[in-house]
Write a structure and sequence with these properties.
single chain; alpha+beta; seven-stranded antiparallel sheet; three-stranded antiparallel sheet; 10 helices; 19% strand
Length: 312
């Protein structure tokens, strides 16, 4: 769980619709978000890259030039945006809070492996081809029930084939967005899901276990809202598209501490109750919809907890 204020992003508020693309212009000055748990997160990413490399890292031959381009853009951004957290000595980059130093010119590693050790965001590279844009490189340490082994090498349509309504409503729009995205017009979006834990690494496919919660009558103590902040930008040299994903996780009980917690809980409940069977199944909520809705209703109807004030 993040040490920052809860619910940095609220894609489940009353202004949003589930299963909508909802892209917004991205200010590149804010491309990568601050990470209050950077040392802890990077330690987990380094462990995953060491112990589960085939699960979290993939590349196609010929993708390294574009990976390198993305890495250089990332390093330049981090040095400008977080000068207290990143230091460059020659071609060695140090992540100060984590005590991590990487060699940016280490040719024994894919550039995305280096990138995966310096930021909390995951990176995915898509390149155009006869079948449209295709996933050709990725460092994906914190997937949300999304198997890189299953998805790697697939086209944009293949990557989204399981999304309810994609083929009928979204495919044409998504492909047009990818084809027409300009270097100077990056975009971003957010989405939400419900999980039974705060773990960041969820590489299983969408066929998740049904018995998530031990006590369905008291879900607010064990359920979590998981939000993905996604950015999409075109790389200026290669023309490939770079997709980044940052995960935020907050417990249901954080609604009780948030100044707008009751309204947000009620809105999330409305989103869940408005999902059709295919959408519920995609989000893994078929068996737990009513229990989760009841937990959110209880939060929405209860007073918001006032933050405690330490005695002088």
């Amino acid at each position: 769980m993040s040490a920052a204020a809860p619910f940095v992003h609220t894609p489940f508020d009353s202004t949003r619709k589930p299963f909508s693309i909802a892209l917004a212009p991205l200010d590149l000055a804010a491309w990568i978000e601050p990470e209050p748990r950077l040392a802890e997160t990077l330690a987990e990413r380094a462990q995953l890259l060491a112990e589960k490399r085939d699960v979290v890292l993939r590349e196609e031959e010929g993708s390294r030039a574009a990976q390198r381009e993305a890495l250089e853009l990332l390093v330049t951004h981090l040095l400008e945006r977080f000068p207290g957290s990143y230091r460059l000595d020659g071609r060695r980059l140090t992540v100060v809070p984590a005590g991590v130093t990487v060699d940016l010119d280490d040719d024994s590693e894919p550039p995305f492996a280096i990138a995966g050790r310096i930021v909390s965001d995951d990176l995915l590279l898509l390149t155009p081809g006869p079948a449209g844009y295709r996933l050709v490189a990725a460092v994906l340490c914190f997937p949300s029930a999304w198997s890189l082994a299953e998805k790697f090498g697939q086209s944009l349509d293949g990557l989204h084939a399981a999304v309810p309504g994609y083929a009928d409503k979204m495919a044409r729009v998504m492909n047009r967005i990818f084809d027409n995205l300009k270097v100077e017009q990056p975009v971003w979006r957010v989405n939400w899901s419900i999980y039974p834990d705060a773990e960041l690494h969820h590489p299983e496919s969408k066929e998740r276990p049904r018995d998530w919660f031990d006590d369905p009558a008291h879900l607010d103590a064990s359920a979590f809202v998981r939000v993905e902040r996604q950015t999409l930008r075109r790389l200026p040299e290669s023309g490939d598209l770079l997709f980044t994903v940052r995960v935020h996780v907050d417990p249901f009980e954080a609604f009780r501490r948030h100044p707008d917690g009751r309204e947000l809980a009620a809105s999330l409940r409305g989103h869940i109750l408005g999902l059709d069977p295919a959408q519920l199944a995609y989000k893994g909520l078929t068996e737990h919809r009513d229990a989760i809705a009841a937990a959110l209703a209880a939060i929405a109807e209860a007073p918001v907890e006032e933050p405690s004030v330490a005695s002088a």
